[in-house]
Amino acid sequence: xxxxxxxxFGTTAPExxxxxxxxxxxxxxxxxxxxxxxxxxxCHSDLHTARNEWGGTIYPNVPGHEIVGRILKVGSGVSKxxxxxxxxxxxxxxxxxxxxxxxxxxxxxCEKGNTQTYNGHEKQLNQQTFGGYSERVxxxxxxxxxxxxxxxxxxxxxxxCAGITTYSPLRHWNVGPGTKVGIxxxxxxxxxxxxxxxxxxxxxxxxxxxxxxxxxxxxLGADEVILxxxxxxxxxxxxxxxxxxxxxxxxxDINAYIKLLKRDGALALVGAPxxxxxxxxxxxISGRKSFAGSLIGGIKETQExxxxxxxxxxxxxxxxxxxxxxxxxxxxxxxxxxxxxFVIDMASLKK
Length: 351
Ligand code: NAP
Ligand code: ZN
Ligand code: ZN
Fold this sequence. Notes:
Order of helices and strands: EEEHEEEHEEEEHHEHEHEHEHEHEHEHE
Bound molecules: NADP nicotinamide-adenine-dinucleotide phosphate, zinc ion
Number of domains: 2
Largest sheet: 6 strands, mixed
CATH topology of the largest domain: Quinone Oxidoreductase, Chain A, domain 1
Shape: globular
CATH superfamily of the largest domain: Medium-chain alcohol dehydrogenases, catalytic domain
Radius of gyration: 20 Å
Number of helices: 11
Number of strands: 18
CATH class of the largest domain: Alpha Beta
Structural class: alpha/beta
């Protein structure tokens, strides 16, 4: 298969910094589009993967799965896009399309294993997939999203992961008017969760470790804020929430948050710390509570989320960086020092 070299930024070992390298992209086949990447969000999963915190990272690794850009080329059988259109790519670039999950539009749970945007396996070139910290990407049109024209493009990039990862569980657990929902961890995912849950009509309670985010959480749309380090505030709010979305990237005591649920409430994890989170039996059995999880969202639901965000004028609060600043950005991400998503201006890679 024909292919071309493109510039990218990635890493060759868990402890190594990210640096410029070259990767190979396939030429478009009949159903592919080639996208010039304009902006790419920086998800905490990029950092977990680059540093092999979950195990299984294949090196060199080029992260990035919050991709927005413009279509440069279309294959002969492409029907959804034309050259010049805006387009988005999230965490998935392929799946089997035949299993029960794929048929239900839940490609994230493909029973034969989907192809992730980076650190997956690209059949066409028989190599690992490389993500959005790069000039261009080639993706089958079925896994490419339409971007609402009314939204700022750079601030839309984080919707491709942080947006869908919070939208999908909020929908699945029927969050809406009459629901009191808690969002734990106000980073890239959490701040999108607040905005989306509010737009769905829920009463939104932010639960944060950061005193500095209390006022800001209200600006994002929170009705109430609980500072989780304050035992009194946690006690006062015990048994008050129908549903909690946990967006925390590091170890934390899950039992303390389950206490905030009402009877029959559920806490769903989207945050993915590297080590197990112990749950006490009595946290769940007293109150018939559920401890659950959720993984991004399927392609159809990702488009639904983008259209919902277009309609409600929802984008991410971003800090734009140059590609060359990515190592500093990872250090700041670990300290919770970003409001609320770094987005890379990919034009900087051309310099
Ligand atoms: P992020 O921007 O770094 O935000 C994480 C937030 O967690 C921080 O802002 C902080 O919020 C809170 N936090 C950090 N350390 C904590 C601790 N020790 N105890 C309690 N809270 C703490 O990360 P992100 O990009 O939103 O990603 C969050 C997690 O979701 C990551 O693990 C990521 O890999 C995972 N993820 C999962 C999926 C999925 O499909 N399930 C998709 C994307 C990402 P406060 O300052 O408010 O406390
Ligand atoms: Zn992500
Ligand atoms: Zn499948």
